[in-house]
Amino acid sequence: MTEQKTHCGLVAVIGAPNAGKSTLVNQLVGQKVAITSAKAQTTRARMLGIALHGDTQMILVDTPGIFAPKRRLDRAMVSAAWEGAESADAVLLLVDPIKQRRHELEPLVEALKDRPERKILVLNKVDIAKKEPLLALAQELGEKIEFSEVYFVSALTGDGVPEMKQALADLMPEGPWMYPEDQVSDVSERLLATEITREQLYQQLHEELPYDSAVRPEKYIQRKDGSVEIHQQIVVMRDNQRMIVLGKGGSRIKSIGQAAREELSELLGQKVHLFLHVKTDERWSEDKEMFEEMGLDWTR
Ligand SMILES: Nc1nc2c(ncn2[C@@H]2O[C@H](COP(=O)(O)OP(=O)(O)OP(=O)(O)O)[C@@H](O)[C@H]2O)c(=O)[nH]1
């Protein structure tokens, strides 16, 4: 019997905030591994999504949107993004043709153009974008960066994604798989659980909740009856934000907890008991321990 050769490689997904990177990674993996939201900069730490295609395993690095960093949290996010791109077998530049802003794209173009990795341009949101500006943008970017390929996709509907996935798989070098066949991400269930709560916070509070909030894992207990008990702390900077998260008579936090619990039960395939606590800590974004819990590097 001839042994079948496997392929394995790294694909970095780079793009401005809100371009749809997490949505694309979820689509390529075939299940939700990264949270998404209409609020920019939802993705914080670098995370891996693991996609399979035939005998090929692709390790997708979903990077936080790159922007001009000022605060420590932002700087840590940006450096996590570039570390993700290093030594990748392909770097995907994902662009939202509708909302892309010049000042967000420029630094990306500058940083990418001389990099040695194979670069692929992916124009996203074809489900809502008009064809003419889409082609013009592809041409404009193609003049600045040497892309080996260009794809037009909708990460949301999946349109164009299978063709792109096939092409990416073909680029991956021969080698053993780095992760077991059934593993879809490198994020622990404990951390994924906090991300699901954070997604609900964003979805239910929209612009009311500033970007300065975090969800920390407190306890994660597997119960003997097959269910899991999860305790998390929602940290905000100010007391009025705490009141917003709690809502009238605790109604908002209840609804956030309920939605997060339902989604987690489905993802984990077991019954979930979720306990959320809201805490005000105006200095959390200067807290080393919290940074490390979120998988970010404090020293940047
Ligand atoms: N119509 C449409 N919307 C999309 C598409 N892809 C992503 N979106 C939406 O765009 C928003 C941003 O998507 P995300 O996947 O969170 O974007 P991101 O690039 O990971 O964002 P950051 O975490 O801020 O870096 C969400 O509301 C998505 O539902 C698409 O192909 N079509």
UniProtKB/TrEMBL annotation:
The keyword Cytoplasm applies. Its main location: cytoplasm. One of its GO terms (biological process) is ribosomal small subunit assembly. InterPro entries: G_ERA_dom, GTP-bd, GTPase_Era-like, KH_dom-like_a/b, KH_dom_type_2, KH_sf_prok-type, P-loop_NTPase, Small_GTP-bd. It holds the Pfam family KH_2. GO terms for cellular component: cytosol; plasma membrane. Residues 62-65 are annotated as: G3. Belongs to the TRAFAC class TrmE-Era-EngA-EngB-Septin-like GTPase superfamily. Era GTPase family. This is GTPase Era. It comes from Qipengyuania vulgaris.
